[in-house]
Amino acid sequence: MKELVARSLKYQAGRVQVLDQYLLPHEETWHHCTSVAQMTSLILTLKVRGAPLIGLAASLLVAYLAEQGHSKTQLSEAIDELEATRPTAVNLMHCMARLRTALQQQDFALAVVTEAERLFEEDCALCDRMATLGAQLVEPSDNILTHCNTGALATAGVGTALGVIHHAARQHADIHIWVDETRPLLQGGRLTAYELARWQIPYTLICDNMAASLMAAGKVDKIFVGADRIAANGDFANKVGTYNLAVLAHYHKIPFYVVAPVTTLDIGCASGAEIPIEQRAESEVTGVSGSFGHCQWAPVQAQVYNPAFDVTPAELITAWVLDTGVYYPQDVAAGVLGTV
Ligand code: MRU
């Protein structure tokens, strides 16, 4: 496989390496990944996370195993196992489907490696196109609110919603970003804040429940978020808390944009009701874990509800920024997502 380098995933010197996103921003630790069990665990614990990145990391691992001489059956089992790690982000299913097709070739090892390289490089190009299109929606001095982490850490390129913000900031140095901390796993507070600081884009971190009063005070001009799966009717799943923002944006008449590559579309899902939502461990809500260990604040017996994602209905979305164009409600209602 050729050398591939992204912000949190690389194939270098014959090794698949991933940046541990759970330890960021305080520790930059790279894991050298050689087995399905190891990659599965990295994905389940969100050390490897973000819809496009999950699919790409799994793909590079399968390609690495192909290079190591694993049989067709072993590679097929690896694909099945990796695909089952996280059920909502459809990019993973998209990547695994592409590798399954490659596996049918006579020289399946070469075909799988080539396809994994292609997936990685395509993602960089998709990010650039989304960022360029989305940045045109941003105006000087905009205050933009974003949720979770959708940047270079979550993709092979510059990111989705945060990629738009990156490109917009190069055109308008005076924009400012409100960063939702994104409970329970704090991808905003840990990762988006870290990326914006590195890019020298002015930002202010808020707790998720502060967004409403900011909007009421007229301090949010636009909202840009990413997606883990977009249904044919435009409904989409993204990090839990996204739907709250969409409802608030609607009430306060603030434009609400979703940014995603075509690999996040699932036209097999007619509406958001068909998107499977991952449920996660109670311990993520009753406390917090990190390099410092685990800190529990809720009573040990506390009953917990912990969906990783929620669904935002199409009627609350101002526009869908895909790599193929910016689509408005009338386009989506006319079925454009089935044709891009
Ligand atoms: O659980 P995570 O951290 O993988 O969730 C990530 C998100 O919800 C992102 O918004 C989404 O994957 C789009 S990232 C480019």
Structure description:
With 340 residues, the protein is of the alpha/beta class. It has 2 domains: 124 residues, translation initiation factor eif-2b, domain 1 (Four Helix Bundle (Hemerythrin (Met), subunit A)), CATH 1.20.120.420; 203 residues, 3-Layer(aba) Sandwich (Rossmann fold). It has 11 helices and 17 strands. The radius of gyration is 19 Å and the shape is globular. 5-S-methyl-1-O-phosphono-5-thio-D-ribulose (MRU) binds next to helix 2 and strand 10. 5-S-methyl-1-O-phosphono-5-thio-D-ribulose binds next to helix 2 and strand 10.
**Biggest sheet details:** 7 strands, mixed
Radius of gyration: 19 Å
Report the span from N to C terminus. 30 Å
List of distinct ligands in this structure = 5-S-methyl-1-O-phosphono-5-thio-D-ribulose
Instruction: Give the low-confidence spans.
Output: none
The CATH architecture term of the largest domain is: 3-Layer(aba) Sandwich
> How do the strands of the widest beta sheet line up side by side?
7-6-5-8-11-16-17
Structural class: alpha/beta
Instruction: State mean pLDDT (0 to 100 scale).
Output: 97
Proportion of strand residues: 15-25%
Count of runs of 4 or more consecutive helical residues: 11
Q: According to CATH, what is the topology of the largest domain?
A: Rossmann fold
Shape: globular
N-to-C SSE series?
EEEEHHHHHEHEHEHEEEHEEHEEEEEH
Q: Give the tally of β-strands.
A: 17
CATH class of the largest domain: Alpha Beta
